């Protein structure tokens, strides 16, 4: 009889989620300290970087949140292409960004009421001409709006959480953008664009 390792898997999953939900400890306000932290993190992640399928990472992040009971099966909807979308990234850092954004989005979704559409997590490949790199995005309902300029994401707890996410994305060499839809800002799209992986052959 094989030993039951489900508790070990759950423990690992909970540790991963906990790492993604520590905005107070991870937020660095001093510009010089932030630059030093980013440089150190970038060197560590460069050594750990490899070509990974963003679709597979998205599925794994959602599975972790399901396994730890942080989200219900109906709260996140995956919108993934049929083909893999590869990017040279750190698995640990990319997973951390996805978990952080997903838990933030689900929290905003729950505050709006369970009758609304699920949080949507999508992945897009880079274009053939290299105008933009591979990306993933979240679309969800939110009662409050946030500034669209990343440097101005201040004020609310959600804005602070997005600021932390932006700093994590920058260690990947990527860019985070926030867009509010409608005059009331009832729908928010958060896009994480990663560096150009090299112009595809065509």
TrEMBL record:
Keywords: Kinase, Transferase. GO terms for molecular function: kinase activity. The keyword Kinase applies. This is Sensor histidine kinase. It comes from Archangium minus.
């Amino acid at each position: 009889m094989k030993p039951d390792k489900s508790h070990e898997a759950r423990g690992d999953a909970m540790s991963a989620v906990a790492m993604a939900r520590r905005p107070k400890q991870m937020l660095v306000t001093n510009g010089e300290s932030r630059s030093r932290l980013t440089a150190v993190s970038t060197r560590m992640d460069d050594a750990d970087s490899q070509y990974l399928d963003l679709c597979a990472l998205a599925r794994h992040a959602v599975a972790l949140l399901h396994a730890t009971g942080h989200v219900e099966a109906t709260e996140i909807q995956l919108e993934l292409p049929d083909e893999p979308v590869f990017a040279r990234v750190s698995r640990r850092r990319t997973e951390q960004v996805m978990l952080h954004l997903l838990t933030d989005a689900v929290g905003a979704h729950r505050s709006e009421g369970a009758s609304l559409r699920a949080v949507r997590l999508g992945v897009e490949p880079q274009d053939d001409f290299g105008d933009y790199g591979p990306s993933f995005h979240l679309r969800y309902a939110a009662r409050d709006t946030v500034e669209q300029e990343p440097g101005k994401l201040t004020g609310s707890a959600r804005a602070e959480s997005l600021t932390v996410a932006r700093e994590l994305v920058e260690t990947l060499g990527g860019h985070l953008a926030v867009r509010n839809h409608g005059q009331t800002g009832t729908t928010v799209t958060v896009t994480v664009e990663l560096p150009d992986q090299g112009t595809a052959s065509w």
